[in-house]
Amino acid sequence: MRRIDATHDPSLRSWVNSANEPGTDFPIQNLPFGVFRRAGTQESFRGGVAIGSVVLDLVAVTRMAILPPEAATALAAAAQPSLNVFMSMGPSAAGALRSALSNALRAGSPLESRLQAALIPQSQAQFALPATIGDYTDFYASIHHATTVGRLFRPDNPLLPNYKWVPIGYHGRSSSIAVSGQGFHRPAGQTLPAGARIPSFGPSRRLDYELEMGAFVGRGNSLGEPIPLDEAESHLFGVCLLNDWSARDLQSWEYQPLGPFLAKNFATTISPWIVTLEALAPFRAPWKRPADDPQPLAYLDSREVRAAGAVDVELEAYLETQRVREQHLEPHQLSQSNLRDLYWSLSQLVTHHSVNGCNLQPGDLVGTGTLSGPAPQQAGSLLELSQNGKSELHLSSGETRTFLEDADRVIFRAGCTRAGYARIGFGEVSGTVLPARTPAPTH
Ligand code: CA
């Protein structure tokens, strides 16, 4: 587990003034990594670090040759057009680079005048996926989500018997994962209308979002070598926001017996910045299992996980409709929840994923599953908030929704606050629903 060190000192200030403004997601205590280039150019994408309202261009910093040796090696990897190699170097490299960048960016650093030339406003940056994502796995680790969804379909038996024993997940698809700003066409597919015996084909009419976080794998494990629980976090690099767009009508017709398929793989959107586990060190919380629930099997249980396996991240989901944009209104807040409420810790997800010998690789993405809190208004999807379309949501714009309509934009934000530490944020992830493509002529 990463330790709290001098980089977390709440009294640290940066010579980048916007990093010291109250409410910034990116104070000097955060230093998340992403991949970017200047918008409107054909420049190569390259690694960057968010500080205040700007990006520190890591290629430019590499050329200056100003960091100590271990940090310089990590910097060269973090400057690449994808962060996989940097991720594979593990926590000591990430920690060394974080420490060196913290020194370089703090107020009074002798490097200020040189590094000024390596700053680009985030508003002028175009982001790419931060890593080449070889494999994407999505879990189902919020018991509140699993119970609410289960109750909609099986009122007498909402949680299946395996839920409290085994972290439930499925292998998703990485090719349709894109960075924030993704627009995607409403998917078409097979659905079985209520009361019908024969399915129809057409655009999904029950399009939904899922409020999730994604954890990027850092160091991999060899095929056949499980990752023990207390080593699991050393195989994780950092965390981002993730929207697992879902077509509920496609899903309910196709999901048995093998789980989600076309209902989920048409689009998944992640935030451009990965907040490292180093940055999250002050925001850890005990991982708890209610005393009358089954306790985890031995391979999923440890003193360390119980002491600090959870992460306290406050999440918010917003909906911005066409009318909200046209009338310059504030996006409607759909819900708030917290990563801390997960039934399984990130480390338990990693250990379970590899317990059969499955190899995880640098840049693999592990989704948490929809992050719903214990209260109904903390639900992380419209499926839950509208009770499967039975109850309309009344938006602050005067509109109503059960599921998403064309031109709707869904936005997630997140941040960590704790007394005695600087608040850090995740930026945001947004994506927009475009109209269904006009169907091709059929014969
Ligand atoms: Ca999901």
Q: Your description of this structure?
A:
The protein is built from 11 helices and 26 strands. The radius of gyration is 22 Å and the shape is globular. The chain has helices at residues 58-64, 69-78, 84-88, 90-105, 112-115, 143-153, 248-254, 303-308, 322-326, 346-354, 382-385; strands spanning 33-38, 46-51, 54-57, 119-121, 125-128, 136-139, 169-171, 177-179, 182-185, 188-191, 200-203, 207-208, 211-217, 236-243, 246-247, 268-270, 275-276, 284-285, 310-311, 314-320, 332-338, 365-367, 393-394, 400-401, 409-416, 424-434. Helix 1 (58-64) packs antiparallel against helix 2 (69-78) and helix 2 (69-78) packs across helix 4 (90-105). The chain is of the alpha+beta class. Strands 6, 7, 8, 13, 14, 16, 17 and 22 form an 8-stranded mixed beta sheet that branches. A 5-stranded antiparallel beta sheet has the order 4-3-2-1-5. Strands 9-26-25-20-21 form a 5-stranded mixed beta sheet. The protein has 2 domains: 6-128, SH3 type barrels (Roll), CATH 2.30.30.230; 136-434, Fumarylacetoacetate hydrolase, domain 2, CATH 3.90.850.10. The model has no long low-confidence stretch (mean pLDDT 97). The protein binds calcium ion. Calcium ion binds at residues 138, 210, 212, 244, 367, 369-370.
